[in-house]
């Protein structure tokens, strides 16, 4: 048997192997890729029908609508993050990996965001056009979602890790996750709305960036600890 590679090189190899494995599995599960994307489109599309068709009113609420839709789409996709690994036993093997669990969790979170979060970011300008968001707000929307949606995934990972062993966890997952995402929702919406009135976009992006760095540093640690508790 080949010796287990440790150190930075071994951790990097394990990180990339976990990332590639999850991306490969996701590519074979089309529903897991399409469901959050379609949910985002449907929720954002229904707001003009249910709330108002007036262009000015749509302009005023469109930033909040898009961010709420992105949050709900992220929450919908979260349940599949560790579920299949828990059911087939590979999650227990992951916990026994000699490399730091932090990096394995981070790789799984990155894969999850690339599959479920990035498509939402890419399609957001098109939905913004439909919701009458001013053209000058497209770039702030795109950048704020690009920085903010990974935070939603990282924070959601904590809730999923805590509830992975439960049979029915939808409501519990929402109760745990939603309060943690409120700051991201607030500053993400402000980053889209306030530059229209002369505010500095860089300040809001800096706050979102700080939240992203804090989430990268702390959320995988919390998720790793929660996984050890839930699985053991």
In short:
The protein is mostly helical and 232 residues long. The chain contains 9 helices and no strands.
Question: How much β-strand is present in the residues?
Answer: under 5%
Q: Poorly predicted ranges (pLDDT <50, ≥5 residues)? A: 1-5
Q: What would you call the structural class?
A: mainly alpha
Terminal Cα span:
28 Å
Give the overall form: globular
What letter string, H or E per element, gives the SSE order?
Answer: HHHHHHHHH
Radius of gyration: 19 Å
The overall pLDDT, averaged over residues, is 84
Number of extended strands: 0
What's the oligomerization state? single chain
Tell me the count of domains: 1
By DSSP (H or I, 4+ residues per run), the number of helices equals 9
Q: In which range does the helix fraction lie?
A: over 70%
- Largest sheet data: none
Q: Could you walk me through the main structural features you see in this protein, from its secondary elements to its overall organization?
A:
With 232 residues, the protein is an all-alpha fold. It has one domain. It has nine helices and no strands.
List the defining traits of the structure above.
mainly alpha; 0% strand; 232 residues; 82% helix; disordered N terminus
């Amino acid at each position: 048997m080949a010796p287990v590679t440790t150190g930075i090189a071994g951790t990097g190899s394990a990180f990339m192997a976990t990332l590639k494995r999850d991306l490969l599995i996701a590519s074979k599960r089309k529903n897991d890729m399409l469901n959050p994307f379609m949910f985002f489109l449907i929720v954002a599309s229904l707001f003009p029908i249910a709330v108002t068709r007036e262009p000015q009113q749509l302009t005023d609420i469109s930033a909040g609508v898009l961010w709420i839709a992105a949050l709900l789409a992220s929450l919908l996709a979260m349940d599949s993050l560790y579920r299949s690994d828990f059911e087939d036993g590979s999650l227990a093997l992951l916990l026994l990996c000699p490399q730091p669990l932090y990096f394995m969790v981070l790789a799984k979170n990155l894969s999850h965001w690339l599959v479920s979060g990035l498509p939402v970011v890419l399609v957001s300008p098109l939905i913004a056009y439909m919701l009458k968001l001013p053209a000058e707000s497209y770039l702030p929307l795109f950048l704020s979602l690009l920085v903010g949606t990974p935070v939603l995934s990282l924070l959601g990972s904590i809730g999923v890790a805590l509830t992975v062993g439960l049979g029915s966890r939808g409501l519990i997952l929402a109760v745990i996750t939603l309060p943690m995402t409120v700051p991201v929702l607030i500053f993400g919406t402000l980053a889209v709305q306030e530059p229209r009135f002369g505010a500095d976009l860089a300040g809001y992006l800096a706050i979102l960036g700080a939240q992203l760095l804090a989430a990268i540093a702390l959320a995988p640690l919390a998720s790793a600890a929660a996984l050890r508790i839930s699985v053991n």
